[in-house]
Predict the 3D structure of the following.
Amino acid sequence: MNQIASLPDRMTGQDTSTLSGVPETLLITLAARLTAARQNPDLHFVDPAAEAVGQALAFDPDRFAGDKASMRGSVVRGQWLDGVVAEFIQEHPHGLILSVGSGLDTRANRLSPPPGIDWIDLDFPEVVALRNALVPALPNVRALAADATDVGAWSGSVGWEEGRPVLVVAEGVSMYLDPIRALSWLQALAAKAVVRGSALWLALDLASPLMVAQSHRHPSVSKTGAKFSWGVRRPEEVSRAVPELRLAETYDVARHCGAASAAIAFLYRVLTLGRPVYSCALFRNSSDL
Ligand SMILES: C[S@@+](CC[C@H](N)C(=O)[O-])C[C@H]1O[C@@H](n2cnc3c(N)ncnc32)[C@H](O)[C@@H]1O
């Protein structure tokens, strides 16, 4: 599906009524950023751009704030991914960052990428329209309306030049993808990196089959029209399906989402001989190892 559309520069009325289904889930992560200082002060998460977005939308994060594990989990996951992005920028200060399914996230605002970096936020047209209206603009950062899984449709228009290192970061996205589509997306990214001779980093969070099976019970996702579709038993499954993507690092998100989640994460690991119930992973291709 190719959802590239031409978009207005600025929207006039900004509200979330255009969001339904998977795009609506961006409100969960926005709520997490807005409630972080109040609910998780120990994480020291600071995001003035997210505050500005929340105010402009007149968005009440209390719709999701009661789901404390998800609120905390979104912030710790975001902080881990911020660290990966910062590391990529340090190693590749002239690289290309593709933030896939970026919703109303304000990662670029938090990290202020240097002038050599180009940063593209990809999401569906209705999300990009909101983003362009609400998220404070930065030089070298732009949003592109696209189905991010359709790599062939957008890869020619993002500045993915011969030999240029690329980081694809997808936060809170993979679990909403159709499983076959998800793997063909990752294969297409890896293949594009081979054709371009690019170092490729892929950083994303990965649900387990248990999370997918219990999606309808998820306290926040069940309030939207979305459900989880894709999960992996272990991050290594991605490398088995796409050998070009080698697992470089993992982060057990569930262990850091509060006592109840940590207990579930522990129990799940014991019962499944070490599988994470919910984790982040960084993959790198062979051009970068
Ligand atoms: C849970 S939200 C996460 C938003 C953002 N990454 C954050 O952390 O705040 C999931 C986002 O993925 C986007 N998304 C899901 N599938 C997508 C696809 N195939 N192409 C582009 N965006 C997609 C949705 O529109 C939504 O904005």
Summary: The domain at 22-288 is CATH 3.40.50.150 (Rossmann fold). Residues 1-12 have pLDDT under 50 and may be disordered.
